[in-house]
Amino acid sequence: MLDLETLWQFIRDKFEQDFSPITFKTWIDTAKPLHFTGNIFVVEVASDLHKDYWEQSIIPQVTSLLSDTLGKKIKVLVKTVDEEDPLAPQEKPHSTEVSLDLMGNPKKSTPLNDKYTFKSFIVGKGNQLAHAAALAVAEEPGLMYNPLFFYGGVGLGKTHLMHAIGHQMLENNPNARVKYVTSESFANDFINSIKSKHQEEFRQEYRNVDLLLVDDIQFFSDKVGTQEEFFHTFNALYDDKKQIVLSSDRLPNEIPKLQQRLVSRFKWGLSVDITPPDLETRIAILRTKAEAEHIIVPDDTLSYIAGQIDSNIRELEGALMRVQAYAKLTQQPITTSLAAEALQSLNGAPQAKELSIAMIQDKVAKFYHVSVADLKGKKRVKNIVLPRQIAMYLSRELTDASLPKIGHEFGGKDHTTVIHAHEKIADALQSDETLKKDLATLKADLHS
Ligand SMILES: Nc1ncnc2c1ncn2[C@@H]1O[C@H](COP(=O)(O)OP(=O)(O)OP(=O)(O)O)[C@@H](O)[C@H]1O
Predict the structure, then answer these.
(1) Distance between Cα 281 and ligand 1 center (Å)
(2) Best-predicted range by mean pLDDT among 83-97, 104-118, 427-441?
(3) Among 347, 380, 404, residue at a domain's last position
(4) 159 annotated to a ligand binding site
(5) Whole-complex ipTM
(6) For the segment 81-97, what is each residue's pLDDT rounded down to a tens digit?
(7) pLDDT for 346-364, tens place per residue?
């Protein structure tokens, strides 16, 4: 009888031939065969998202591969690591045939950054799901997750993934029409089209695409006309089963003044967050970057740099470039002590990012006669809630820390709490003169 391992190896070999390395690694390498009993083959996959993808795309292929090879009808089931073994099965239906509808007009040139590909994207815990979802829509646009919505802090790879989807889709189908814009460019294009009376061209441009990527849609808040137009663009593309990918620093329902009908549409597909990378991933990102730029950096130095910056990959890469520049300037090889010097002297003030949240908490606590522990705690009484929100507001305004990082520094609160606090204080500042004065004093104190 065919043993499980041989069977799995057979499947792996087949997919290794057919799939790109990255696809293979994402969907097959992360899966594990559990049983092959009678004519039922059960596979365990890493997450719900992997399961969706298997059901949609891989199961049909495995089923026909096994059925053809073994000469009998085989049923393939997947379960996630968290689910019970389905061998007392309720069989799930899955759609079988997948067809891409991407043919059509010639490709329009689109400004995708060549460096932002799946190949150059390092997958770690914080971005694993986002990466898998991105790959899924690149391979089966318009079918599984529409729209796909990325959210998360600054500099964590949302734009990179969006471009990667575009590149991958073009690689799969060079005729695909891919359009990447920031929400601001969308708004500008729209306004210009009204001014120049070229609205029809604007519509053609945005509605005749196979993939529309709109970055940073939090900047849609307040732009009523643009939201209206985007609503129609969205509907036209969606009805046509064209893929839409959006990104924002927060969830749709947390974007102030975003029309409810857009919020609800944005939730139709899949929203995935990207959280800051762990140390291991940061080191891997730096190593790849150093290799790409032909910079020779010892391992311990990479770890040192990765240890200095923990919440923003753009800054992490910036730190590496600063170290390289410093080494060139002083004509020394890159070592850990040189990196330490470079990051201190070229960074101006001593590394104060983490410190400054602590400093803000300290000053705010003193100013309002509460304790730092109260700021980090959960008490909901007014004389603590206000200083807590002020401290969060200042942390967001005065440091580069990401929302999750600020939440973490305030006793492990969710990043949405930070957004809420920031909005509350920003709103109150419009009318509350005492608050304005207090904040001015606090800021002056913090900067002295
Ligand atoms: N996982 C990763 N692997 C390799 N490079 C990455 C990764 N994540 C981010 N980067 C790099 O970090 C930099 C910042 O990423 P990106 O611009 O995509 O962030 P973002 O989330 O869109 O930020 P913003 O909110 O400012 O738009 C880019 O140079 C990108 O290539």
Answers:
(1) 13
(2) 427-441
(3) 347
(4) yes
(5) 0.98
(6) 888 776 643 333 322 22
(7) 454 444 444 579 889 999 9
* Cα Dmax for the chain: 81
Q: pTM for this one?
A: 0.62
The CATH number that applies at residue 414 is 1.10.1750.10
CA distances, 137 to each of 17, 166, 209 (Å): 21, 10, 15
Would you state the structure tokens that stand for residue 36, as one six-digit string? 């092959």
Which domain range does residue 439 map to?
A: 357-447
* C-alpha 157 to ligand 1 mean position (Å): 3
User: Which residue, among 154, 171, 255, 169, has the nearest Cα to 212 in the 3D structure?
Assistant: 169
The two tokens of residue 298 are 């010892």
- Structure tokens that stand for 312 in this block: 């923003």
110 is in an annotated binding site: no
Contact 245, 137 (CB under 8 A): yes
Cα gap 356→391, rounded to integer Å: 11
- Number of domains present in the structure of the chain: 4
- Structure-derived torsion over alpha carbons of residues 258, 146, 149, 227, reported in degrees to the nearest 10: -20
**Residue to probe by mutation, ligand 1, list 162, 283, 313, most atoms within 8 Å of CB:** 313
11 in a structural domain: yes
Burial of 425 (0-12, 13-18, 19+ CB in 10 A): buried
